[in-house]
Structure formats: structure tokens, C-alpha cells
Specification:
4 copies of one chain form a homotetramer.
Chain A lengths: L5 E6 L3 H12 L3 E7 L3 H11 L2 E3 L13 E4 L6 H10 L4 E3 L7 H14 L3 E3 L7 H11 L6 E9 L6 H6 L3 H16 L3 E9 L4 H5 L5 E8 L4 E7 L7 E8 L2 E5 L7 E5 L3 E3 L7 H4 L1 H15 L9 H20 L3 E2 L4
Parallel strand pairs in A: 1-2, 1-4, 2-3, 4-5, 5-6, 7-10
Antiparallel strand pairs in A: 7-11, 8-9, 8-15, 9-10, 11-12, 13-14
Helix pairs in contact in A: 1-2, 1-10, 3-4, 4-11, 7-11
Chain lengths: ~325, ~325, ~325, ~325
Amino acid sequence: MAQAPLRIGLIGTGRIGQVHATNIAADPGSELTLVADPFVDGATATAARCGGTATGDPADVFRPGAVDAVIIASPTPTHVDLIAAAVEAGLPVLCEKPIDLDIARVEALRPVVAGAGVPVAIGFNRRFDAHFLAARDRVAAGEIGDLEQLTIVSRDPAAPPAEYVGVSGGIFRDMTIHDLDMARFFLPDIAEVSAVGTVMFDAGAREHGDADTAVTTLRASTGAIVTIVNSRHSAVGYDQRIEAFGGKGMLQVANAPSSLVSFSGAQSVEAKPPYQEFFLERYSQAYASELAEFLKLARGEESASPTFDDGRAALLLADAAQRSADEGARVRVDLT
Amino acid sequence: MAQAPLRIGLIGTGRIGQVHATNIAADPGSELTLVADPFVDGATATAARCGGTATGDPADVFRPGAVDAVIIASPTPTHVDLIAAAVEAGLPVLCEKPIDLDIARVEALRPVVAGAGVPVAIGFNRRFDAHFLAARDRVAAGEIGDLEQLTIVSRDPAAPPAEYVGVSGGIFRDMTIHDLDMARFFLPDIAEVSAVGTVMFDAGAREHGDADTAVTTLRASTGAIVTIVNSRHSAVGYDQRIEAFGGKGMLQVANAPSSLVSFSGAQSVEAKPPYQEFFLERYSQAYASELAEFLKLARGEESASPTFDDGRAALLLADAAQRSADEGARVRVDLT
Amino acid sequence: MAQAPLRIGLIGTGRIGQVHATNIAADPGSELTLVADPFVDGATATAARCGGTATGDPADVFRPGAVDAVIIASPTPTHVDLIAAAVEAGLPVLCEKPIDLDIARVEALRPVVAGAGVPVAIGFNRRFDAHFLAARDRVAAGEIGDLEQLTIVSRDPAAPPAEYVGVSGGIFRDMTIHDLDMARFFLPDIAEVSAVGTVMFDAGAREHGDADTAVTTLRASTGAIVTIVNSRHSAVGYDQRIEAFGGKGMLQVANAPSSLVSFSGAQSVEAKPPYQEFFLERYSQAYASELAEFLKLARGEESASPTFDDGRAALLLADAAQRSADEGARVRVDLT
Amino acid sequence: MAQAPLRIGLIGTGRIGQVHATNIAADPGSELTLVADPFVDGATATAARCGGTATGDPADVFRPGAVDAVIIASPTPTHVDLIAAAVEAGLPVLCEKPIDLDIARVEALRPVVAGAGVPVAIGFNRRFDAHFLAARDRVAAGEIGDLEQLTIVSRDPAAPPAEYVGVSGGIFRDMTIHDLDMARFFLPDIAEVSAVGTVMFDAGAREHGDADTAVTTLRASTGAIVTIVNSRHSAVGYDQRIEAFGGKGMLQVANAPSSLVSFSGAQSVEAKPPYQEFFLERYSQAYASELAEFLKLARGEESASPTFDDGRAALLLADAAQRSADEGARVRVDLT
């Protein structure tokens, strides 16, 4: 309450960087102090809108005393070095997923993070969605008995551009990774991964040897089975549903209705599709809560922020899914 | 776009005054310039939060050049004089409903307003709710054929304090009046009113000879029948539904779900009640749209703001409903 | 179980007579023994299908020893005399609603029925619908606290032929009467009636001075308000919903879905309208249960069959509704 | 219409045999002529209820002129020999699934069936469910564009007795086989199978090395992916849902509601679980339609009955699923 706002250095001013900037400005516990982007116009515009000083050089963020905490929303290949820099500077950091597309680089960074004692959070924002969180908490409270099956339907509105597909790391590392983390939110210890991918519609996926449609099956150490149904497009809109099934019943999280109006006629009952546009709209509350939780982490308070090891685990699972899809074999994983 | 923001003088800083202040601060087309409230601490706090200068004297708002437009959110007995002052000062005005509880005072003001050529809008915010508006527009577009029956369910979460009931003008003038205006939003020309009121639970209503439960039936000049089902309490939460029935089908507006999570077990399927807390939450978008539409009106642009005559019509209908409930007879009305 | 089946005499082989014949044949506790219809071909065909002997003369049913109980499904004007004959013959009788369109004839019959000690049931089949019954029982069990508002939406798929409208007794005695009985199923003691009727679409109603659209408002002696929304047509299909609202919550009975399939596309989510064709389909279970309950009544067991006085009360309410609609005044009723 | 009813010989009078007997008695196109069961009391009771002569010897069914068609509802190990006998006798046959648990015996029978020219239908009753059929037809009509993902949730109310599990052939051959056929109803040409099984709750499954929880993933030759989520129990009741997803939208088949009544209170909205008890109730219409379609097949008319090769394909897929679950590898199949 009486605490001074945390001074945040934001690196990267793309779509998600904008979301973080807006939320920092709105959260009384934080203020936007430095905005860094080599595309300096983006930094300048963001600072004008949400406060702070703009710079084209991310290294400014790590200068002694410049900021209290760092949020990394720059392109994936920069994440590992920027996390390392933040850790070295002793600055708590929230980094967008994935940590990297190359698990070797993540493993190399791991002991550095573990040894430094500096909090590192990874931006798995869906953990903060009030509906998924409520479902998870109710499962954890035993409402459905033992969790036996978790079914995640996760479909994007439209496939990304072909050039993005080419550098995305593939559907499992780029898109499924969010669902793999959600699986671990309910069942942290995943032991086995199977996956099937196929190209049904997207020329970009075909061109780059990627899939646009995929189903991933996980077995947790408890025996519970997770099924993730992914598609890179959805005529109906952004489709994000979860069903947790247990011995005593099930909990379902539906899509949000986009209108309260329905029409009933002789032939049909019609309503607007129950979907919001895309992740910035569907998860706007989740991004704000993610920031609030990171502020706690940065202050040394108890926090629900996903950790560096959560980021690593999701990438290990995505790698296993890709290998299973490629080779046709179930893949055992060890997340410890 | 390039227009200067309209300078708004706000009179009254209660619940709804706060909503207007927040929306004025957030709307680039307006700025809060003067905040007037005889309870000057309220004015000061609001100005500190949303901008402008605080004053304890509403007359300051009407000083030449002080503001460009006025919003009246003060207690009902002050409305008529403040509207008159605004009109005299040539200032466009948005006044909360009702104009007054005494139709005689409204009729006396009517020619003043009509002759002045100054825009006067009344705060029937529900007309701006995106869902009701969509339903009305679809009815107007002929989607259900002729509108034959309009059924409005409107229940507040909890009865107001007994002292408020005593000065409220009664359930029809205080609560039903919103639904009467909604009826006119779909069917402007109402010809007859019947009403039944009863006391089922509220000691305050009993004490003041008021009802806590009421059903009002209207007949439009088209022959269509409107039914308004009101209750001063609702265990389930704020209940605001509309069903428009016509020869080709019907349009329904449901309550908003408060959660996307549902539980299915051996005995039942459960979800959170599909209701938001109360009008400030349910109609937050509507208040913002109401302001935007008033800014257009104040600028002389085409506007959907309800007029002084809409405010008068709603009060005439409320009076008729009260009389019908008291006397047990259907009451003819002439809204012209 | 070991009881011999009750031998039933059925008078009238129209639509509802057919339903009773089918149910009698299917119920092990009854057998169709005599089928009487002046249109003797109807009687013959029904007997061939469901058992028993056909006759063109209803008087055969009342011959000593011919049958154990009587079901009257002949035209309304015959009901009073046939009930009187059954009572005189000492035969338990189930008569379709209404008892008569003329309350004077009903009042004249009333002491005859009361004095005879012969069970007379009236065919208000909706009381036996499992869903309405469950809602009523849950209200009676206090699940929603005191019942404060009961809202009944009741719309037929299509208006009857003009010639039927002419002899129907009007929408209140012909159609609303079912809903008036349903109101009394929840709130037996109705004290006041208001009604509004209008012609919106049906030439037959206009020709005969009847209404095709009506809203009836009742006040029970408890203070609770009942609202009945009627239409003689519904593009969506047979529309039969109830909402019981009380201090602790509400119970709603929805229409039955006609399909489990729904389509979600870019513009809309579509399903089949949640309605069944008409009363024979919607209330098929109710007719079977009605018969079962009448068999109990005829055997002298405890039974939930609506009584002669329930039939009289519904007609008194329908008369009051018609008068209120005609005269524009609330009408007090005394059902004792 | 004018055709004589087909004389049916029914072998087996367990649960499903009873269903067939009832439907034969109700269908004017068929009559129950012979009922065979080594447990002759079952045969006698069934014949008493539904017609025909009882016998303890199934061979009686195949005597020249005894019947026109055969329905086999006896235990699985008898199916192959009884189909062979029917084919040899030239009698059209409807046999319950599975043909056998041993694919070798099915392959041995295949040329016999193929060469005989006698219609052999397999009892995949779910193909005849009006809702699944409508969804399939709408997919086939192109309503959702290319079918990209088919997701089947199929959960039984409760695990079978341990002794049954021991002889069931395992969850894939016993339970999933219905869903595998449903997958082929939408996508006949399945090319690959992956499966994961686990024991979460059932001691019988653990004892017999079977699974009680399984997810099976299929890839069709079109590239489309089918996901089948199975559980041997469901606290909520029999759970049978399908979601067909394509480029233009999706079609969903929901569970049937068991009540039209819902309660809304301060804490929750509650309804009965939307599930019917078990397959005899959920698929009662499907069994009747299955019989009707078999009667057409037996008469040489065009028919939608699943064929012997459909029965073989489902078993091949179940075998592949079992192998994939056991070995952890994706299994390619060739259903031609």
C-alpha cells in the first residue's frame, strides 16, 4: 500500500509489450520507467502513452539503479541473453514464453538462474485467467475426486503468415507450448508424450514441414491422461476450452459469449458465436493478473508466477511432442 | 477528432455522478471542468480523481463561459430547477432520470425546454446497452416480423433502505420507470397501462404504502402488449432480461454469465448465477455510450440521446401504472 | 398388481380421445371396454386399434355393469350432461376441460357432483407433466422460499380455424384456462384477475371479437402475482415455459430441445428450436400419468387428479379475465 | 406396406436381445417367429412377451423355412459360427458387435461372407442415432468444409464387473470399438492409430492388465485427426458427445438433458445432469432404426446397415489401438 511503485524496464514494444505497458501504467504498484526497443519509434510511442523514458538500447535497462525489475517482450532469440543480463544485474525478470526454441540454450542458462537467487518468471499468462484458475483450484480442492482426464481444446482464429511459421519452431513449440504449460498447471509431473500432426489447410505449414492441426496426448505420473486438440485456424473464432474429468464429476471451462442476444425462429435458434477475437481480448484480465503476481515476486512476496523451470518443462514437452509426431513413437520425458 | 474536448460541468457526485466523472475522464471528446456538489468533499475528491475544479455551488456551473455542457446527477428534487438553469444558460444538459416525481412540474418545464432550442437529454442509460440496442435494432429491421409481445423481467438485487423508499415516489416512478422507457424504446406510442403491485417481503415498502413486487402491462397503439415483471429483490442477482416476440420468431436478451466454469456431478450441473452485481457493473458500457451520445447531441450532431419528452413520457406511464395499481382500472394515456 | 383392470368407457374419439384410448390400452391397470361416438366410424376404428366394443350411443356407457369408469372426450357442450349421467350411474369420471363454457351450468351441476360422492376429475393434463410437477413440488418444498412471482409463457404453434374460434368461448376460456389451472397448481387461492387482449394477426379472432394475443395477471391471496403471456401462434413452435420466483431463488422450466446437434460458424451458433410440435407430443407423458392418477381415483385410492372444483375455478378465472379484458377493470374472484 | 412381415429368428435373450425382441414386436415390418437361447427360460419369457416360439437350440433358427432373417445377440464367442450358419442357410443376418475378439477368426470368415451374397449387418447401433446421423449428414453435405478434427467423448456410467473385464478383450475391443466405428462413420478410411491407456480407478482393469481410461488418436487418409476420449466410469452418467470441426465451422452433438427444470439461487444455477442412464435408454431410437434398416437390407432394398467389413475394420482398429497402447508406437493400418 504505502510501498513505492516498482520501476519497470520493458524490453520490446510489440503486441504483448504494449499490453504490459498498459497494465504497468494502470497498476498502482508499478510504473514504466524505461522502454527499450531497437525500433526506437516503438519505444518512444509507448513511453509517450504509458510513461517512462524511451531508449533504443536494451542494455540501458540493466545499468545500475535504472529500474527495479525487467519485463522481456522482445523476439524469442533474444530471451536467453536478456534473462542472463537481468540475473547478472540482480533484477527480477518476467520473460515471455518460450525461453528459447533450443533446449540446449535453456539447459545452459538453467544453472545460472538457479544459482543467482534472482526471481525469473515466464509469461504463461493463461495460468492467470480467472476461469482456468478457478477450475484448477476446484480440481486441487478435490471437487471432482482424482483428476483422470484433462481435455484442452485450443484453436487460434487464423494461421500465422508463412514467414512466421518458418521461424516459429513448429506448432508444438509455438502454439501447443501454452497448452502444455496449462496441462502442467493441473498435472505438474508429465511422464510421457505422444503427438500426431497433420497439414489440413495451411500452405505455410506445408511449405515449412510444419503441421496446422495436431493432437497431443500426455500421461502424467499419476496415470491421468491429458489430450490437447490444436488447430491453427477456427472459423468460429478463438477457441479455448478445458474439461477436467474425475471420479466425482467434471469441471468445464467454456468460451465467453460475445453477445447476450439470441434469435429463435421456425428453423433455428441463433446466437453469436461464443468466442472473443483472440488472446489479447480473451486474456486481458490474465495479463493484468500476471503482472500483479510478478510484482509480488519481484518484491520477494509469495507469488504464483510460473518459474524458469516451468518454462523449461514446457519446452521439453514441446520437443517431445515434435519428436513423437515425427517418429511415431511415444516419448518418455523427465522434467526434474 | 481535431475538435477540442467539450468542457463538462458535473452536478452531483453520488454513485452515478462518479460513473459520469470516470467516463468523462476516459473519453477524449470531453473533459471534466467543474464538479459541483453542496457536499463539497465529494466534489473535491471527484475533481482530484478525474480532473477539473471543485465547487460547493452548482450555480458556478452556469456562469458564462464556465463549461460547454452540463450533466445533472444530483437528487431528483433538484432536477427541474437545474435543467431550467442550464436551458437558460444555453448549455446542453444530460439529466438523470426521473425529471421529477411530480408530473405537474415536468409539464410546467416542458414549454421552456421546447422553446429554448437547447438539447436536453435524459439518462435512460439502458437504451445504450449493446445487447438491448442490438435486439431493438433487429426488431426494427423486421427480423421477427411485427412485434406482438415484449416481455421485460427487471429485478434489483435487494430492496433499498426504508428511508429511500419513502421518498422514491414508489416502485413505478423509481424502478419501473426504466422499464417503461425500455418499452418505449421498442414501442414508442403506448396507449394503455394496467398494473398490479403487492408487498411480499419488504418492511420499508409496507411502511410507506409502496409495493416491492409489481407487474405492469402496456398496450401500444399498434396493439402490441408489453409486460414488465418487477421485483425489488433477487437472490440470484441483478436480473435484466427482455424477450421480443413477433410473427416470425423472437429475440431474447439473457443475463450475462458471471463465470465460464461449470461443474457436472452425479446429482446436478452447477454454474455461477448468470448475473452481474448491479447496474453500475451491468450497464458500465451503457453509461460510457450514453456519454458519447450526449457529446454528439451537445455538438449539434445527430444523436440517439433520449429527450426531455422521453423523460416526460416515462413519468406519465409510471403515474398511470401507480394509478392503475391503486384503483384497479386500466388507464389510458396520451403521450403526445 | 393382482387387481383386475378397470373397464373404461370412452366417450369421444377425436384427437384427445385417441390419446386416452392408446394410454388405456398400454396401461395394465385399465382396459378399453366401450368406445362411444355418435360418429360411429371413429368409435369402431378406435375399438379395433385399442380394444373394446364400439357404439354410436354414449348412453350405452352408463348401462348398469357396462364399465367401471368413464372418460369424457366429447365436445364441450356435452360435458355437463355426461358428467351428470356418470355421477347418477355411480361411475367415476374423467372429463376433458372445460366443464362448460357457461359458468351457470357448472354451478348448477356443482351440488349434484358434491352430493353424489362419485369422483369427478377434470383433464388438466399439464399438472402431470414431470417437469412442471417437479417445479411445483420443489416450490412447495420451500426451495425458493415464498413464491412471489409466477410467470407462465404459453403460446400455441398456430391459430385455430376461424370457425373454431367462433365457438371456443374466446381465448381466455379456451386457451388461457390451462394456464389458469397451472397458476392454481402453484397458488390455489387466486383473489384478483386483470387481463388485456388484442388482435395482432388472426382474422378469425378479429371476425369473432376474440383476441389472439393476451396477458393475464392474477393476484393470489398470499399476495403473489401470476403473469400469463399467451399467443395463438408461435413461429418457433409450441412454447410452454414457467418461471417460479421466490425470495431464495427461482425455478425455471424450459422448452424441450428438438435436437442435440448445434452448428457454430463464423457468424452464428445455430441449433434447432427447442420446441416440440404441439400438446400431444409435448404432453404425451402427462396424458399417461393423468390416466394413471385417474385409475387411482376411480379405485378410491389417494390421487392427484384435479377435481370438479378445480375445473369450476379455472372457468371462474377465465370468465373474470374475459370481463377484465372487456371492461378494463381488475376483477375480484371468490373461488370457494 | 402390403408386404408380409419378415419372420425373425432371434438368438440370445440378454439385454440387447430384449431390445431387439421389443422392437421386432413393435415394427409392423417384422414378427418374432423363433427365440433361441440355451438358457431356455429366457427364450420362453421373451416369446411370451413379444411373440414367437421359444427354443433352447439356436440351430432351430437355421432349419429350412423356419425364419426369413436372423438376429444374433448371443455372447461374442458364438458370433462367427452363427454368422457362418446364417450365411450357409442363406438367411440375412444382423449380428451384434464385435464379430469376434480374434481378428484371425474374422479374416477366416470374411471370404465366406463375401462369397455367399447373403447380407450380413453388424450392430453398430450408434450410426442410427438421429443426432449423430444428422451431424454426419451435415458434415457430408459440406456444412463445415473439410472435416479436420473429430473429437469423440465416450464414457460409460460405471465399470463392468471384474469377471467381464477378464473376457471382454480389453477396453479397446470392448468399448472403444463403438467409437472406432463412429470415427469410420465420418471418416471411413483410417490409416494410423495411436493409443494411451491407463488404470485410474478400476480394480478389475488392474487385475486383468486392462485400462479403464484411454485416449485413442486416429489419422484418416485425408489427414484428418480423430480423438477418442474413453472412460469406464462417469459420475455424471452416460457421456456421449461428438464434435466435428472443419474449415467453415463445427458441429457438436450434446448429451440429452434429463430434465427441463433448473434452479437459480444466490450461489449457483443448478440443473439435472444432461445425461441419460445408459445405452439402452440413450440409444433406444437407434436400436429401432437399426432394425428398420436391417429389414430393408434383408428385403434386398437399399440400406444403411453397417456391413461385415465395417465390423472387421473396427476390430482391426481396436487391435491396432491395443498394440499402440502396449508398445508405445503409432500403428499403421490397412482396412482394405
